[in-house]
């Protein structure tokens, strides 16, 4: 009898212990999810967050959502620098699309960890950009990656306003990072996003709020964002010039032709008509001019390459799998659809994570955003001292180095003549190996870097060189 009572008592204690543990975890989950705050200048925005320990458990992390009007929710994931987080710069990373998740950058390219083939675990990335910088990945525009909601931006200008609000709320709550040098980096369609985001930050730093009536009352509450530079990798920034180089990249790249000469000749012959349409778009920026330009030029200049079955992001490779031709993106999707991962980062409401949302791509295209001249945002930023790096993997077709270099040389700004006359010099690794070719102003204000042996996603193909590029660029020691 005594033994039975003892057994019952132990069972009772176990039940109490298990219940207490469940209550503790439930309370912890609730308190984590309810850490929310707002900003007086942005009454329609709130931010909620938690502190996960996935991917790089040895550094401080913050993940969560920027909520807008209760029906728009933008996901972010922040990692502190592995080095000196109180001193190292802060980088915001954006993938492109439009409609592709910045978590691609996190788990495939430059983030603290890489997903394994099975999609059930991660390994530390020794060449992560948070080696010497803190970094925040932002899923934008709406319904990209872990972000979700109704409506949302259909153009780059509107999308940039949400990014500025995100930064204001982030720095308000996590003020220990507001003094750090701040850099905006990204690739592909981020060649649109980043110049406009730079303008949004720079204009607001100077008090040129749009619309002024909304923010003047709370101007003293706004942080001056310490914007130092923009970094655009294999971006779509100046379509008028860049579309001219598709034929040349298809037939005359250093890795060997993808198309035969007659196809490239046909592409070159059709470019003048394409250019006229883009010029009309640049002049009016109306959807009625910009949408026909995108439809005509993409058909004539990009479709012939796509029909070959080769990877448009790497002329050296066949397209593999349905996820932007990279099998690893299937593994990333598997990992980010795990319930435990979604719970850990505060995204349990996401039914299905996808690397790219093609509906967003379609909506931006339909709004005429694809061909608009966001390149025009850059000269005023350069004049105001914001440094700009354009870098390009030399095996990419879709936003190739030839077109990117061409527009940097022709960019109309105060340093144009100096930049145009500058020499292209070998860019060397610390070991003395040539890993690229650099053209830069003497003061490092504006630079173009061709990265050898890399496709559209430079940090994926050349991780060590990409980290070296970042570290030297933020110290203004790229040359």
SSE topology sketch:
Layout: H1 2-33, E1 36-39, E2 42-50, E3 61-68, E4 72-79, E5 90-94, H2 103-110, E6 113-115, E7 122-124, E8 134-138, E9 148-149, H3 156-173, E10 182-188, H4 190-205, H5 212-215, E11 227-235, H6 239-242, H7 246-252, H8 261-284, H9 287-306, H10 328-336, H11 339-345, H12 358-366, H13 378-383, E12 387-393, H14 401-410, H15 416-421, E13 425-428, E14 434-440, E15 446-451, H16 458-461, H17 463-474
Parallel strand pairs: 5-8, 5-10, 10-11, 11-12, 12-15
Antiparallel strand pairs: 1-2, 2-3, 3-4, 4-8, 4-9, 6-7, 13-14, 14-15
Helix pairs in contact: 3-4, 7-8, 8-9
Low-confidence stretches: 1-10, 12-32
The count of DSSP E runs of length 2 or more, i.e. the number of strands, is: 15
CATH architecture tag of the largest domain: 3-Layer(aba) Sandwich
Q: Count the helices. How many? A: 17
Helix content: 40-55%
CATH class type of the largest domain? Alpha Beta
| Termini gap | 84 Å
Q: At the fourth CATH level, what is the homologous superfamily of the largest domain?
A: Alpha/Beta hydrolase fold, catalytic domain
Instruction: Tell me the structural class.
Output: alpha/beta
Largest beta-sheet characterization: 13 strands, mixed
Instruction: Work out the strand percent.
Output: 15-25%
Average the pLDDT over all residues and give the rounded result: 91
* Shape category: globular
CATH topology of the largest domain: Rossmann fold
Radius of gyration: 24 Å
Q: Tally the structural domains.
A: 2
Protein name: Carboxypeptidase
Catalytic activity: Release of a C-terminal amino acid with broad specificity
EC number: 3.4.16.-
Keywords: Carboxypeptidase, Disulfide bond, Glycoprotein, Hydrolase, Protease, Signal
């Amino acid at each position: 009898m005594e033994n039975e009572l003892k057994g019952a008592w132990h069972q009772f204690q176990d039940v109490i212990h298990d219940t207490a543990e469940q209550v503790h975890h439930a309370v912890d989950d609730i308190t984590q999810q309810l850490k929310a705050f707002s900003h007086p200048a942005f009454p329609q925005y709130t931010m909620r967050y938690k502190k996960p320990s996935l991917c790089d458990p040895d550094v401080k992390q913050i993940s969560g959502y920027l909520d807008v009007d209760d029906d728009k929710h933008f996901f972010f994931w922040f990692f502190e620098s592995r080095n000196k987080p109180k001193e190292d710069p802060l980088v915001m990373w954006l993938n492109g699309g439009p409609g592709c998740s910045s978590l691609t950058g996190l788990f495939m390219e430059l983030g603290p960890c890489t997903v394994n083939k099975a999609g059930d675990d991660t390994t530390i990335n020794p060449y992560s950009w948070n080696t010497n910088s803190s970094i925040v990945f932002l899923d934008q525009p709406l319904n990209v990656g872990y972000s979700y909601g109704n409506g949302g931006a259909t153009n780059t200008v509107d999308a940039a306003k949400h990014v500025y609000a995100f930064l204001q709320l982030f720095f308000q709550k996590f003020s220990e990072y507001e003094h750090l040098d701040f850099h905006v980096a990204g690739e592909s369609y981020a060649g649109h996003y980043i110049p406009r985001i730079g303008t949004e930050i720079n204009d607001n730093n100077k008090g040129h709020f749009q619309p002024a009536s909304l923010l003047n009352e709370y101007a003293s509450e706004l942080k001056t964002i310490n914007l130092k530079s923009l970094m655009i990798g294999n971006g779509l920034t100046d379509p008028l010039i860049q579309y001219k180089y598709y034929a040349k990249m298809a037939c005359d790249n250093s890795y060997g032709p993808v198309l035969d000469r007659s196809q490239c000749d046909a592409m070159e012959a059709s470019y003048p008509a394409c250019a006229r349409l883009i010029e009309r778009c640049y002049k009016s920026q109306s959807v009625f001019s910009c949408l026909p330009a995108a439809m005509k030029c993409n058909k004539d200049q990009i479709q012939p390459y796509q029909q070959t079955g080769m990877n448009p992001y790497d002329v050296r490779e066949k397209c593999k799998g349905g996820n932007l031709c990279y099998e690893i993106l299937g593994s990333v999707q598997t990992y980010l659809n795990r319930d435990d991962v979604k719970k850990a980062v505060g995204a349990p409401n996401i039914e299905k994570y996808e690397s790219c949302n093609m509906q967003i791509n379609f909506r931006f295209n339909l709004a005429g955003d694809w061909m608009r001249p966001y390149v025009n945002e850059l000269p005023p930023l350069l004049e105001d001292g914001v440094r700009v790096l354009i870098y390009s993997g030399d095996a990419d077709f879709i936003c190739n180095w030839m077109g990117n270099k061409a527009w940097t040389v022709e960019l109309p700004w105060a340093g144009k003549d100096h930049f145009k006359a500058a020499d292209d010099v070998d860019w060397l690794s610390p070991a003395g190996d040539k890993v690229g070719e650099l053209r830069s102003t003497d003061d490092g204000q504006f630079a173009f870097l061709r990265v050898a042996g890399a496709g559209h996603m430079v940090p994926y193909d050349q991780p060590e060189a990409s980290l070296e590029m970042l570290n030297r660029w933020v110290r203004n020691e790229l040359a």
